[in-house]
C-alpha cells in the first residue's frame, strides 16, 4: 500500500498506578481507511483513543496523528481530529440544534446554523431539533453526538464504541455514515465490542489484548490465522468471533459480547 | 491567538448563560438562603442584638452579601463538574479551541449569576428598611470589592468542579465558606466574643471586608481596614487562581 499513514503508534505504553494497561502497542492506520480496534472490556481501547485525541499523556512510546506527535504537537493534532467518546458528550440543557451550532461556532465554520440544519436532516433529528437534549432517548443522543463530531470535516475520526446502545436501525444508519465518510477520504479508527460491526465496516481489524496488538489485518488475513477449515458434513466459514476467541484464548469467561 | 481566546470564551459564556436562563431556580435558590437569614436575624434575633446602631438591617447586609456569593459559587462548581463528568469537557479538550476558554466561560458566567443574586438580596434589604448614605463612588467601591470577592471564590469553586468525583463532593466545599461570616463581625460586633474566638474573628478576611462595605454604605471613610479588605480579596484571588490553573493544567495533560 502506498497511502500515507493517518495514525502511527509505536511502542505505546500507559499504566494507571501499577496497573499496566498498554504494554507496547504498535499500530498503523492508513489514510482514508476504516480500522477497527477490537478488545474485551478493559483491554485499553478507550485508553488508546484518549491518548490519540490528546486527552491523556502516554507513559512511553510514540503516537502521531496526521503526521503530528500527540504529545509535542497536541494543538496540531486537535486541528486534524474529531472524537466521539464512549459515552455521548452532549449538553443536556441545550437543544439538539443548539448543541450543533455550539460546536460549529467553536470550529469556526461559516454558516453555523446551515451546517447544523444539514446535519439534523442527515441524522433524522429535524423533528427533535428544538427539544432539549435532556428529553432525548439514548439512541437520539448518540446520533446527535456523532453528528456533532462531523462538524468541520476533520480528516481523522475516532469513534469509541459508536453503536453501543443503538437500535438495529440506528446502527445501520451509523454504519452507512461511517462508510460514506471513508468514501470521502476520512480516516476512521473505530473501537467496538461487536464483531459483526468490525466485520461489516472495517478495512482492517486490530485486536488489542493484554496490552498489545496481537493481530492486525484484513478479515481474510485474520481468517488465515486459523487452522484450515476442517471438512465436516456442513462446511462453515469461521466467523470473526471464532477467530477472535482462537487467538485470544478461551481462558475465563467469554471476553466479548456478540449480537 | 488572543482573538481565539475571546471568541471561544464568548461562545462558551453564551452557552452557560443560556443554562442559567433555562434554570433560573439556581439564581433564586442562591438568593433565598441569604434572604431568609436576613429576615430571621432582623425580625427574630435583631431586637435582642445590640450592634450600637439603630438599624440592624444596615449592620447585617454586608455580611449577607458575602454569604450570597459563598452559596452562589456552589453552582459554579456544579456547572463545571457537570461538564467534566458528562463528557462535554473532554469533547471540548479534544477540539482546537483556546485552552483557557472553558474556564473563563464558567468564571464569567459565575460573575453574572452572582451579581444578579446580589441585586435581588439588596432589593429585599431595601424593602426591609435598608438605607445608605453612600454616593455613586462608594457604590462603585462596594461593587468593586464584591466583584473581587466573587472572582476569588469562583476560582476556588473551579477546583472541586474539576476534581470532585460525586455531586455531593462538589457542593461540600462551600459550607465552610458560608459558615465563616458567623465567626466575624458580620452578625454581631467582635468585642463581646470570648478571647480565642475574637482573635480568629478579627484576623479572618470576612471581618475587614464586611466592615469596609459597612463603612462605604454609611458614607464613612474606610481607613486602613479598606486596604486590608482589598489585600485579602486580591490575595485570595491570586491564590485561588493559581491553584485552579494548576488543577486545570494537571487535568488537561
Ligand atoms: N482513570 C483511570 N484510573 C485508573 N484505572 C483506569 C482509568 N481509566 C481506565 N482504567 C483502567 O484501565 C483499563 C483499560 O480501560 P479502558 O477504558 O481503556 O478499556 P476499554 O477497552 O475501553 O474497555 P471497555 O470495553 O469497557 O470500554 C481498565 O482496567 C480500567 O479499569
Ligand atoms: Mg472503552
TrEMBL record, chain A:
Keyword Nucleotide-binding: yes
Domain of life: Bacteria
Domain spans labelled ABC transporter: 7-235
Gene Ontology terms, MF aspect: ATP binding; ATP hydrolysis activity
Primary location class: membrane
GO biological process, one term: response to antibiotic
Keywords: Antibiotic resistance, ATP-binding, Nucleotide-binding, Transport
Record-given protein name: ABC-2 type transport system ATP-binding protein
InterPro entries given in the database record: AAA+_ATPase, ABC_transporter-like_ATP-bd, ABC_transporter_ATP-binding, P-loop_NTPase
Protein family per UniProt: Belongs to the ABC transporter superfamily.
Entries under PANTHER family matching the protein: ABC TRANSPORTER ATP-BINDING PROTEIN (PTHR42711), ABC TRANSPORTER ATP-BINDING PROTEIN NATA (PTHR42711:SF5)
Topology versus the membrane: Peripheral membrane protein
Annotated Gene Ontology cellular component terms: plasma membrane
Origin species: Humibacillus xanthopallidus
Subcellular location: Cell membrane
Pfam family, one: ABC_tran
tRNA processing keyword on record: no
TrEMBL record, chain B:
One Pfam family recorded for the sequence: ABC2_membrane
Main location class: membrane
Subcellular location: Cell membrane; Membrane
Keyword annotations: Antibiotic resistance, Cell membrane, Membrane, Transmembrane, Transmembrane helix, Transport
Highest taxon, organism lineage: Bacteria
GO molecular function annotations of the record: ABC-type transporter activity
Annotated Gene Ontology cellular component terms: ATP-binding cassette (ABC) transporter complex
Segments traversing the membrane: 26-45, 57-81, 102-130, 136-158, 226-244
An individual GO BP term: response to antibiotic
All copies of domain ABC transmembrane type-2, residue ranges: 25-251
Statement: the UniProt record of this protein carries the keyword Transport: yes
Family stated for the protein in its record: Belongs to the ABC-2 integral membrane protein family.
Name the UniProt record assigns to this protein: Transport permease protein
Species the sequence originates in: Humibacillus xanthopallidus
Amino acid at each position: 500500500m502506498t497511502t500515507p499513514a493517518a495514525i502511527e503508534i509505536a511502542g505505546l505504553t500507559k499504566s494507571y498506578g501499577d496497573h499496566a494497561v498498554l504494554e507496547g502497542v504498535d499500530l498503523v492506520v492508513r489514510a482514508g481507511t476504516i480500522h477497527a480496534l477490537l478488545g474485551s472490556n478493559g483491554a485499553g481501547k478507550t485508553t488508546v483513543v484518549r491518548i490519540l485525541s490528546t486527552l491523556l499523556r502516554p507513559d512511553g512510546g510514540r503516537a502521531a496523528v496526521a503526521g503530528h506527535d500527540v504529545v509535542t504537537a497536541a494543538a496540531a493534532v486537535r486541528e486534524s481530529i474529531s472524537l466521539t467518546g464512549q459515552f455521548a458528550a452532549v449538553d443536556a440543557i441545550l437543544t439538539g440544534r443548539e448543541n450543533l451550532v455550539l460546536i460549529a461556532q467553536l470550529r469556526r465554520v461559516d454558516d453555523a446554523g446551515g451546517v447544523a440544519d444539514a446535519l439534523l436532516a442527515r441524522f433524522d433529528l429535524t423533528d427533535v431539533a428544538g427539544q432539549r437534549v435532556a428529553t432525548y432517548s439514548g439512541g437520539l443522543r448518540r446520533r446527535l453526538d456523532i453528528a456533532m463530531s462531523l462538524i468541520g470535516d476533520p480528516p481523522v475520526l475516532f469513534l469509541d464504541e459508536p453503536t453501543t446502545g443503538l437500535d438495529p436501525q440506528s446502527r445501520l444508519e451509523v454504519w452507512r455514515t461511517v462508510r460514506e465518510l471513508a468514501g470521502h477520504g476520512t480516516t476512521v479508527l473505530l473501537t467496538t465490542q461487536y464483531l459483526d460491526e468490525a466485520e461489516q465496516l472495517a478495512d482492517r481489524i486490530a485486536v488489542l489484548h493484554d496490552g498489545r496488538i496481537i493481530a492486525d489485518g484484513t478479515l481474510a488475513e485474520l481468517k488465515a490465522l486459523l487452522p484450515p477449515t476442517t471438512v465436516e458434513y456442513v462446511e462453515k466459514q469461521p466467523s470473526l468471533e471464532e477467530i477472535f476467541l482462537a487467538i485470544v484464548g478461551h481462558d475465563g469467561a467469554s471476553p466479548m459480547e456478540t449480537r | 491567538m488572543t482573538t481565539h481566546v475571546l471568541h471561544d470564551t464568548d461562545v462558551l459564556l453564551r452557552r452557560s448563560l443560556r443554562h442559567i436562563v433555562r434554570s433560573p431556580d439556581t439564581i433564586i435558590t442562591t438568593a433565598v438562603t441569604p434572604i431568609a437569614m436576613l429576615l430571621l436575624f432582623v425580625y427574630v434575633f435583631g431586637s435582642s442584638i445590640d450592634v450600637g446602631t439603630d438599624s440592624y438591617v444596615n449592620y447585617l447586609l454586608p455580611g449577607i452579601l458575602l454569604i450570597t456569593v459563598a452559596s452562589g459559587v456552589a453552582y459554579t462548581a456544579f456547572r463545571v463538574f457537570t461538564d467534566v463528568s458528562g463528557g462535554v469537557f473532554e469533547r471540548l479538550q479534544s477540539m482546537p479551541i483556546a485552552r483557557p476558554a472553558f474556564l473563563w466561560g464558567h468564571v464569567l458566567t459565575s460573575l453574572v449569576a452572582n451579581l444578579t443574586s446580589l441585586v435581588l438580596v439588596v432589593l429585599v434589604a431595601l424593602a426591609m428598611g435598608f438605607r445608605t448614605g453612600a454616593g455613586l463612588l462608594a457604590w462603585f467601591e462596594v461593587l468593586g470589592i464584591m466583584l473581587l470577592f466573587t472572582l476569588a471564590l469562583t476560582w476556588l469553586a473551579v477546583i472541586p468542579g474539576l476534581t470532585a468525583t460525586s455531586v455531593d463532593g462538589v457542593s461540600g466545599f462551600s459550607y465552610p465558606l458560608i459558615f465563616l461570616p458567623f465567626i466575624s463581625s458580620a452578625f454581631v460586633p467582635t468585642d463581646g466574643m470570648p478571647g480565642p474566638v475574637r482573635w480568629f474573628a478579627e484576623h479572618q478576611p470576612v471581618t475587614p471586608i464586611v466592615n469596609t462595605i459597612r463603612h462605604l454604605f454609611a458614607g464613612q471613610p474606610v481607613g486602613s481596614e479598606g486596604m486590608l479588605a482589598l489585600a485579602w480579596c486580591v490575595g485570595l484571588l491570586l491564590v485561588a487562581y493559581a491553584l485552579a490553573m494548576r488543577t486545570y493544567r494537571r487535568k488537561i495533560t
